[in-house]
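Name: NIPBL protein
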Amino acid sequence: QLSFYFRQVSGGEDEIQQLQKALLDYLDENTETDASLVFSRKFYIAQWFRDTTMETEKAIKSQKDDDSSEGTHHAKDVETTGQIMHRAESRKKFLRSIIKTTPSQFSTLKMNSDTVDYEDACLIVRYLASMRPFAQSFDIYLTQ
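Structure predicted for NIPBL protein:
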């Protein structure tokens, strides 16, 4: 069901960013009926910005650790670091653009003309939550 939101990939956007757009669009459309959604929208934007920063730092630290353990620095690793930084910057740029827009202006950034309903929004939230480190390592925590 999420594949519907991945159909129209515009230049440089990844699937996670498309889902974030769809969820923010849903929250924006429903803020008039539920004022708590304004807080939810701001919380998600801040959390995604923080996640992007943390993921980038971890990836770069992991690459530096790999380089020091091997004793040499490979050009392939530099390219990967550049790709990590580029992806992080594009996600941060997207989130900054969302922060600067008012909810009424956000409608111009909609992913497509199809609106997300409540069930789709719940599905998107569950999918995005499953991508977070805690959700991915839950089995380890449970085993311990």
